């Protein structure tokens, strides 16, 4: 894919390096000359320009990009870049960095954002994931809350421990996409049994999260979770 990244600070450069290593073409757009450091990511295409200016984006051929990443440290800039990328250049996928948690509600489809990445939310989710057993932890939100990546670490008391996956009656709009067992990552099949301590990774809509929790952790788990909070 051809991917444009607005903002060539530490975050933007790190994203660029990772994407290049995965075989993608990366364009870094930076408006501050002192931040223009092609030697840091030599395989990327570098452009000195203001990503909030329509003419600069036209010159950079943003319309030819598959993805735009708004990765600056300014939420206002990231929103403007996202809106221009989506409305003026019809970029299929726009990912935006959220710097301040109180601004997260702005990063929606109305501003051209397909995926908003909030550092406070991601860090909180990683903390919860590391210490929580027997509850559902939301790791990431896709497309403004229509679907979430969630994790449940199975306690020994979970009702389907030791049973194959085909015995677990997951609700509609929920899919088990991976099982983390120790250091292994397992692709689930219907005949695989689940074990205590397994980390189950689901993609599901927000509406069925409680139903997933109820099935996987047993009756009353939703109420117990709410009471504990």
From TrEMBL:
<dbReference type="Pfam" id="PF02080">
    <property type="entry name" value="TrkA_C"/>
</dbReference>
<feature type="domain" description="RCK C-terminal">
    <location>
        <begin position="137"/>
        <end position="218"/>
    </location>
</feature>
<dbReference type="InterPro" id="IPR006036">
    <property type="entry name" value="K_uptake_TrkA"/>
</dbReference>
<keyword id="KW-0813">Transport</keyword>
<dbReference type="InterPro" id="IPR003148">
    <property type="entry name" value="RCK_N"/>
</dbReference>
<protein>
    <recommendedName>
        <fullName>Trk system potassium uptake protein TrkA</fullName>
    </recommendedName>
</protein>
<dbReference type="InterPro" id="IPR036291">
    <property type="entry name" value="NAD(P)-bd_dom_sf"/>
</dbReference>
<keyword id="KW-0630">Potassium</keyword>
<dbReference type="InterPro" id="IPR006037">
    <property type="entry name" value="RCK_C"/>
</dbReference>
<keyword id="KW-0633">Potassium transport</keyword>
<dbReference type="GO" id="GO:0005886">
    <property type="term" value="C:plasma membrane"/>
</dbReference>
<feature type="domain" description="RCK N-terminal">
    <location>
        <begin position="1"/>
        <end position="117"/>
    </location>
</feature>
<dbReference type="Pfam" id="PF02254">
    <property type="entry name" value="TrkA_N"/>
</dbReference>
<dbReference type="InterPro" id="IPR050721">
    <property type="entry name" value="Trk_Ktr_HKT_K-transport"/>
</dbReference>
<dbReference type="GO" id="GO:0015079">
    <property type="term" value="F:potassium ion transmembrane transporter activity"/>
</dbReference>
<keyword id="KW-0520">NAD</keyword>
<dbReference type="InterPro" id="IPR036721">
    <property type="entry name" value="RCK_C_sf"/>
</dbReference>
<keyword id="KW-0406">Ion transport</keyword>
């Amino acid at each position: 894919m051809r991917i444009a990244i607005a903002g060539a600070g530490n975050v933007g450069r790190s994203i660029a390096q990772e994407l290049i290593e995965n075989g993608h073409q990366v364009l870094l757009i930076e408006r501050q000359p002192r931040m223009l450091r092609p030697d840091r990511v030599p395989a990327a295409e570098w452009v000195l320009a203001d990503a909030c200016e329509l003419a600069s984006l036209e010159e950079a051929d943003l319309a030819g990009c598959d993805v735009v990443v708004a990765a600056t440290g300014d939420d206002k800039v990231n929103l403007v870049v996202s809106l221009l990328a989506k409305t003026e250049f019809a970029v299929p996928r726009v990912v935006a960095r959220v710097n301040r948690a109180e601004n997260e509600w702005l990063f929606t489809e109305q501003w051209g954002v397909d995926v908003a990445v909030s550092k406070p939310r991601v860090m909180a989710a990683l903390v919860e994931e590391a210490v929580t057993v027997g509850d559902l932890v939301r790791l990431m939100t896709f497309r403004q809350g229509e679907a979430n990546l969630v994790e449940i670490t199975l306690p020994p008391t979970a009702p389907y421990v030791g049973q194959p996956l085909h015995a677990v009656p997951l609700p509609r709009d929920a899919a088990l996409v991976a099982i983390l067992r120790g250091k292994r990552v397992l692709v689930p099949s219907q005949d695989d049994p689940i074990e205590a301590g397994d980390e189950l990774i689901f993609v599901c809509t927000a509406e069925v999260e409680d139903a997933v929790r109820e099935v996987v952790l047993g009756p009353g788990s939703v109420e117990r979770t709410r009471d504990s909070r």
